[in-house]
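Hey, can you fold this?
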Amino acid sequence: MRADIVAGAVFPDYDLTDHTGERRKLSELQGPDPMILVLSRGGFCPRDQRQAEGLVQLYREMEVGYSRLVTISTDNMLATNDYRSGVGAHWTFLSDAGRKVQKDLDIAEYTDPEHDPMIPYVIVLEPGLVVFKIYNGYWFFGRPTIEELRQDLRAVLRKCRPDWDITRPELKSAWERGEHDCFYPYDKTFAQVFRDGRGF
């Protein structure tokens, strides 16, 4: 991994094609929320498939917990969709068949010249693509457990949500004064959130 990609650094805002063929930037996919970014070898790897299967349940929690999940692999578009469908995933998968991310981050898995994948990593990002934690998953048990990711998300949300502890008297007073800008979602009405499909 590139030496400057460390906790506290801003992760590159890659622009890649998603599983529907649309170009997407990571910052767009993240929005104002924490995000778990999975850098994957691809659907050919049984370890990556097992990891993605485990993330299916966590993603259901992340949807109601205002957090995002994105997978990037070196698969082409067809293989990306096969991978996503095969594990029953419903989050965004990005195709990096040109190895842009692999090369830029210096994470080519040189021990597998046949597939030329990237070394699998899981990166937990605070809002603004700020790196919170990095897991190297070359060996399967180097990857975070679902519980570790839950704990990471809790730590990030506690850090970035001003209304994390809604029992604070000053928050209640702000709400009663009609000062709702420190309550999530900060820039939308609750009606807009439900229209976006991200309600409680």
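Oh, and this one too while you're at it.
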Amino acid sequence: MLNYKNNNLVDVKKITLFSVFLFFLSSCSNKIPLNSFEQEVPKPAPVYTNIDHWAAHPKKSDYLDLKPKNLINDTLSLDSVDVFYVYPTLYFDGFDWNADFSNKKLSKKIKDLALKNQVSVFSGLANIYSPYYRQMHFQGYKDNINGLKAFDFAYQDVENAFKHYLKNFNNGNRIVLAGHSQGTHHLQKLLNEYILLNDSILKKIELCYFVGDVFIENFATDGYPICESPTDLNCYLSWNSFPYGTSYPHKKNDFVSTTNPITWRNNEAASLYNMHKGILFNNYKIMRGGNKLKQEKILSAKVDNGLLWVEIENFPLFSLYNKFLKGNYHALDYNLFWMNIRENFYLRMHKK
């Protein structure tokens, strides 16, 4: 088990907002691509033989070499496991449909937000590979013509990076795919259009984290179902977090099966508060209820109609946070369950 020093929640008042709130603050930008997709000059493509064209790589020094400051006695270790991670949309303020992957400002956001708050959950347990890619502008989700073209353009980078990883870096290791939001959308496409067509590659994919999407494609008919228990492998996990009681309009043909990242089931049973292990905060510390004030309740989660309902109690200033979150915990899909994800990842991958 992992242990961390107990932190009284009153100290939260001294902590700034989660850095991942910048996902939403950034999305307030009014910048919209000026031209059609065809009118733009394509950005130079990443060259994945160049280690600098990877946001994360075992040979690079970054947040992934560190663990939360108050995570102690972390003796968990796994052998021969790789995580191929694709980060979410962080390109909000440009005037083109696809980002320049070499943009230093964007690269800093990727490191400070996505690497630090999301894929860091696998630090020390796996070799982490995360390619830079010319991701689609946030506005692409609102444009059915230019957006689709920009998405497919970005996807080609992801597919090329994965093929390069397989040929040059994998060395027979076990493979886990992990993404969030746009990253998850690209990984679903990768699974559907490349991996599922290659049995030898499919056998290597032991787990997928399709996080941050309400509508996950049903891969069960192709032999890759959603995970149903805390120890299942060769399956995928999926959730998108909302405040308790949120409703969402689904169409009849939508596939809406969701994982509870505390119970690791996809039924509608709510998790108990004492099952929640801890949240990763902006100061890179794990936080949970404090014993001194008997604030044991902090977070419970329940699956409902394809959404993950999250109920948070005894959390100072969270009403203020909610004002920034706009009724959606999407940006915190990894942070809220950081310790649960880490411990369960070890449980699944260690059992084999």
